[in-house]
Amino acid sequence: MTITMKDVASKAGVSLSTVSRVINNSTLVSKETTIKVKKTIDQLDYQINDSARALRTNISNLIGVIGAGMDNPFLMNALKSIETKALKKNYNIIYGDSDGELEQELYYVNMFKQKKVDGLIIMTANFSDELINSVKRSNISTIFASGYLDQTDLLSVTVNNIKAAEDVSDYLFDLSDYFAIIRGPYNDSVASKERMQGVKNKYKEYNIDLKDKYISEGNFTFESGYKSAEILLNNNKDLKAIFAFNDQMAIGAIKYCLDNKIKIPEEISIVGFDGIEASKYIKPTLSTVFQSGNDLGSEIMENLLKLMADENVENDNIFIPHKLIIRESSI
User: Which among 123, 128, 178, 190 is most buried, taking Cβ atoms within 10 Å?
Assistant: First the structure.
């Protein structure tokens, strides 16, 4: 037999409205009555119908997260941080991995709207106009992460990818006349596009031609870093440095060099991006741009909570700190 709110009210000797107030954490119920009702709920094993409550109150206590390739250790850390802070504020997370596919992202936006989520976080590789317009139509409080948005009516929280790539470029130009790049997929209009812009800015500043043969497309995996290192080293016989747009590809590049007796950093310097835990334990240890997934997740949730409460957020684009960490993989 299904236990109802009426059963709880009857056993606890209170009204239906009192049970409802307790379930919704109202301050209008005395401490003693709240304890009695909650004890009755536990005794009867009453299951709160969250969907029905959301329809009544227009509050679901749910936050939707759309990610792309969340097997990435950095993004996983960010997601854990988001969930930790959400739970402290009595919100649950619903997660959908789109693998960067627009159709899937649009599906999740629509699905989360139907579930009446209170907030939405989008951590994907492509902030397309269609996705942005879908989010605007949903009227869900939303934060975009992973990259910068130039639309002032939408909030983004990210690392400053352009400035971070410029910092790496300055460092590598001190080591060599030019360096090669293992970038993310060309359809990544967020992080890879921004990091490429930072590289291009510095190539232009140093008055050096950024040749196509200096660039290889990866997909943020170890395997693509390994293959890209092979391509770049075969196409550029005097290559002395590689900048990989994430640590996994950088570690793949290190593995290729080790397998082929190419000395690191004596013959080739390699720098990654993200500062994942493995970067400290690979041999040689990896030079990398450190950005904190925990800080990113915390900053996302802090600002999303403000949006959901209709509080003012000072800036439309919020950057978390980054730091270039030099280790054994580069001179």
Answer: 123
Strand partners, 141: 119
The whole-model pTM stands at 0.79
Q: Does residue 110 sit in helix, strand or coil?
A: helix
pLDDT, one tens digit per residue, over 93-143 is 999 988 888 899 999 999 999 989 999 999 987 788 899 999 999 999 999
Q: Residue 325 has what DSSP assignment?
A: E
Which helix (H) or strand (E) segment is 317 a member of? strand 317-320
**Per-residue tokens: 247:** 């640590």
Structure tokens at 7: 């059963």
Domains 62-159+293-320 and 161-292 share a fold: yes
* 173 Rama class: left (phi>0) / alpha (psi -120 to 50) / beta: alpha
CA–chain centroid gap for 69, Å, is 10
CATH, domain range 161-292: 3.40.50.2300
Beta bridge partners of 323: 290
Contact (Cβ atoms closer than 8 angstroms) between residue 67 and residue 124: yes
Distance between CA atoms of residues 186 and 220, nearest Å = 12
Q: Where are the domains of the chain?
A: 5-48, 62-159+293-320, 161-292
Q: What is the pLDDT of residues 33-85, one digit of tens each?
A: 888 888 888 888 877 665 555 544 455 789 999 988 777 888 889 999 999 99
Taking CA atoms, 187 is separated from 24, 128, 276, 319, in Å, by 44, 10, 24, 23
Which listed CATH number (3.30.565.10, 3.40.50.2300, 2.30.40.10, 1.10.10.10) goes with 62-159+293-320? 3.40.50.2300
